[in-house]
Amino acid sequence: MVRLDLHCIQPSAPGQSKNCKVCPVGYNVTVRKALLALLGVLFVLAGAYWAIDFRRDRRLNVLLITIDTLRADHLGSYGYAGARTPALDALAARGVRFSQATTVAPLTLPAHSSLMTGTFPAYHGVRDNGGFYLGDDQVTLAKALRERGYRTGGFVAAFVLDGRWGIGQGFDRYYDDFDLTKYRLDVGLDAVQRPGSEVVSKAIEWLDQDFTRPFLAWVHLYEPHAPYDPPESIRVRFPPTMIGAYDGEIATADIQVGRLIDRLAKAGRLDRTVVAVLGDHGESLGEHDEEQHGFFVYDATIRIPLIIAGAGMAPRTVGDQVRIVDVMPTLLELLGVEIPKPVQGRSLLPLVRGERLDGIHAITTAGAS
Q: Does 20 map to a domain?
């Protein structure tokens, strides 16, 4: 083994071989060989790095985060003083915040079916949780991107979005894996859920498996869906009321959003990723004599937050009426992908650029939970 000391290179000792005549100092030839070997290793490593970087697909990634049962007016960026949502607020500050976004139904599966297809329930046929199936003939966001070489991963926190309902089509990896023996199904499908921390850990694990291909990652968080039971360390920060517990659940979800954003940033991928965060529907919280959601279509359950950031978008607040069916075509146009003909929503890029987009009307379908 050669000991290389760049601070003190001694002349050759008596009896040792000398350098070539080009060097008048007479440094030990072994040191010169070590330097050349070191430079060779550095060149090899640099070449390997550039080879990997050259193979990396430069298309934009998409991180789509849906937060179940999230009211727009309970986020700090939407003017709610009692919120503890730093990750979501930071995203809104650097992206486009839509202040008047609506869903199609106050129900998880129909709303997500409209999100993924860009169509209304009357077209895709999913009108309630359970008992309905998103047909294989539907063109989803995941299908459209997988056909163009994207990695597609979906990670869900509730059984109402299990793959058996068709919502997982188009995803290479779909993390549902619910063990139904652990739950009481007689109290409703929405009782089968998992914490957002588990969902995000699975998503991060999948994201870290491939850095060369562009990805679509859909992460679904079930906080703040009832029952409102945030961790005690978070619960104590809020009033001991139903609304306080609900806000604690939102804070819990915000922490997981922060984990995803931080992971992409540390991996050097955030600047090539479009991040879209939205609620699937809201929550009544006792308004109009409805404690939760699923029956009425007032703003409490139909108005949702929608934030899109990345891809060089300038910070902006859009006050125009937009809809959950507009998210899919917006993301596709951002990626330069043709919008499928069945899509009933419209791309919101004109609004993102500060232009006008006329003719958007909200269409809502009510159903029983």
A: yes
Same structural domain for residues 22 and 132? no
Domain assignment of residue 171, yes or no? yes
Residue 246, SS3? helix
Helix (H, G, I), strand (E, B) or coil at 35: helix
Q: Are residues 22 and 83 in the same domain?
A: no
Q: Are 271 and 61 in contact (CB under 8 A)?
A: no
Q: In terms of Cα–Cα distance, which of 341, 347, 349, 351 is closest to 329? A: 347
Query: Kind and range of the H or E element at 273?
Result: strand 273-279
Cα angle 117-123-128, degrees, rounded to a multiple of 5: 85
| Owning domain of residue 17 | 1-55
- Comparing 9-13, 80-84, 164-168, 289-293, the range with the smallest average pLDDT is 9-13
Same domain, yes or no: 95 and 191: yes
Using an 8 Å Cβ cutoff, are 349 and 129 in contact?
no
Integer Cα distance of 196 and 221 in angstroms: 5
Burial label, 25 (beta-carbon count in 10 A; 0-12, 13-18, 19+): exposed
* Tens-place pLDDT, residues 192-234: 889 999 999 999 999 999 999 999 999 999 999 999 999 999 9
Number of domains in the chain: 2
Sequential DSSP letters for 285-316: TTGGG-SSSSS--SHHHHEEEEEEE-TTPPPE
* pLDDT at 18 exceeding the cut of 60: no
Residue 278 to residue 191: CA distance in whole angstroms = 22
DSSP 345: S
Indicate if 31 and 135 belong to the same structural domain. no
Q: With 80 as the cut, is the pLDDT of residue 165 above it?
A: yes
3-state class of 71 per DSSP? Answer: coil
